[in-house]
Amino acid sequence: MYPEEMVKPMRAELSDAGFEELYSAGAVENAIAKSGTTLVVVNSVCGCAARNARPGAKMSLDGQKKPDHLVTVFAGVDKEAVDSARGFMFPFPPSSPSVALFKDGELVHMLERHHIEGRPAELIAENLKDAYAEFC
């Protein structure tokens, strides 16, 4: 677990952009069960979350189509919420950072760490925009 004062600015980067922070399994279950589309970002303290995942997720929201709901959980901090989110991402193995798009509770698009690490935020944003065009 990471100290809250360390992760606070990393959480704020997404919450300030409109992402709801989820801290419990119940909150994750409720968020994913909502009708429409839900983007789930598994946030992390790693460099690829800072350089690629968070900026890419935020940039992806500047297009015409975007998810109905934006939520985030924090790996290494919110264990219950992260475990629950990862359960919905099965059969993909646990990965952080990662980004998943759900439509009416069904996983329809997934970006694992290996899709994020070493790729520019702009490419991640374009990947997500393509998914929004198809599913949102």
Automatic annotation (TrEMBL):
Gene3D superfamilies found in the cross-reference section: Glutaredoxin
InterPro entries cross-referenced by the UniProt entry: BrxB/BrxA
Residues spanning the signal sequence: none
Family: Belongs to the bacilliredoxin family.
Protein name (database record): BrxA/BrxB family bacilliredoxin
Protein source organism: Flavobacterium qiangtangense
Species classification: Bacteria, Pseudomonadati, Bacteroidota, Flavobacteriia, Flavobacteriales
